[in-house]
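Bench notes, afternoon.
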Amino acid sequence: MHTSKNSPGSRSGAVESEQTEELAKSRSQTDLAPQRASWLKVLAGPLLFLLAGGMLIAGLGVSQRLGWVSAGGSAAPSGAASGVADTRTYICPMLCTPPQIGPGRCPVCEMELVPSSSGGDGASAGNAVQIDAVSRRVAHIQTASVKLRPIARQINAVGAIHYDEGSLKTIAAYVDGRLDRLYADFTGVVVAKGDHLALVYSPRLYSAQVEYILALSSRESSRGATLLRVQESTRDLMQSSRQRLIELGMTGEQIGSLEQTREANSRLHLCAPISGTVIKKHATEGQYVKEGQPIYELADLRTVWLMLKLFPEDAATIRYGQEVQTQVQSAPNQTFTGRVAFIDPVVDAKTRTVGVRVVMPNDDGLLRVGDFAKATIRTPAAANSQIAQVYDPELAGKWICPRHPQVIKSAPGKCRICGVDLMPASALGFTDDPAAEGESLVVPRSAVLMAGDAAVVYVESDPGMFELRNVQLGPRCGDQLVVSAGLQAGEKVAVSGNFLIDSQMQLAGNPSLIDPTKNGPSLRPRLVDEDMPSFGGGMMMAADDGPTDAVESTPATPMVQGLDGAADLQHSDNDDALASKQAICPVSDMKLGSMGPPVKVFVDGLPVFICCEGCRQRLLAEPAKYLAKLNSRATPEEEAR
């Protein structure tokens, strides 16, 4: 018998199964509830701890920012809260200005000043800082010893080749006449001594020759005369006639030929008095000339002059007879040697340089007048180089002419050019002993930090302890610097990583490159640059740069510049009075002089003084604002009243 699907029994079974499933779900949910509660209890503790830690760190940062808590963790109430002025040292994060007392903003970059600290790398004391071994390796700090040794520097200069003035000759007409023939008919022709230059026609010369021939005849006829007076008269007449021929330009050979032939000639050959080159031709063939009128100019090019311009401090270190190495533009691969013949005793008022003349032998003719040249002069680099002796192997034990330094002999004698007595080279400051040039303290160039007139080094006084030291510099010789004062031989100076040492000194508020005056008065550096100038460039003498013997102890004169970018001017007494009257910088509201010498800027034609160059741009951007601010401020005299 078939049973239907919708019977009451089947419906009741389905209901029971649904109830069973719901009961199972409710039981499973009841079992998961205790597990969720246990997980929440486990996570609640760490979350609350992290939240509290974050709030504590944030609160500590705010407290340090407001000055309630110092960087070391101890309570430090601010000056505003405690009523006591803040005397801590603050620095600019960009190190634009020296450290100052009290908070504020940097007048240059306007960043908020931060309290100085020791930097965390080690202890600092006074003018020194301690760097531990780990930080030293990380910063690659290396040292080198200060050495005392003989050293020479090079003075580099540029100049030009000129004629030797002592070899110039002017060939002029001895007598009125006409130039019938010019044998040297163009400029540049080379002639030898005695060569015919021109043929001169002169009736006056003919008359003088006839007179001399008659005097000769009278002299010969009077030899048999018994009267002594007659013989003397004819002799005087002959000598007078001969002297007249000499004054009219006839040479001894030409007069001798006239005596032999006894034939007068109205034409005279003009001969070259020296061997040389015709550098100028003043007349043409067929031209009539007067007595004394120039016809030719000759120059003996076997010697030429090299004319140099040196800075006064460089000229003070060289001497007469010193060797000069030269390269010319037309022969850059050859080196020529000459000697200093003259040092100008006067400084040129326009160029502020001293002229130096060098005599250059030119037997092969490679040196051309007008050619540009580069010159190098070797001088002792000792601190007392002005009185030090110079060693030159070619002058050791030799004698030299005091007028012509190219004349050098092994024994006393006369100069072949001027006839002056030779003098020993030792009398001119030359020595036979190479060690007599003196020794100098030298350090590597990288050891010296320079900013403006300040030059400092960091001396490792104890292991890891670096001490700031102001130094006075001499010339630069390659990658070495001569130290005139501030160091001693054997001391070790930092040559790598010294900028990092200086930054630690700045962060600690100690003397540093940016403010070395805390360590005593700075010794003004003098540095010479030895880069050889190119032919097309300007003259660069050795700046520092070179640069190098007498060191000024006074600070450099402050410079000011107008708004139109004109040449720098020095502060006058009137400027000092105006700056004292203004007293305050209108841009930074700082006292003039607190950032160094005030800077003078012209705004709408009016002179305005600012504390530093950092205020220039803001002043020029809003001139009306700051002029009004300046006009509204009372003067010091008004405030006193």
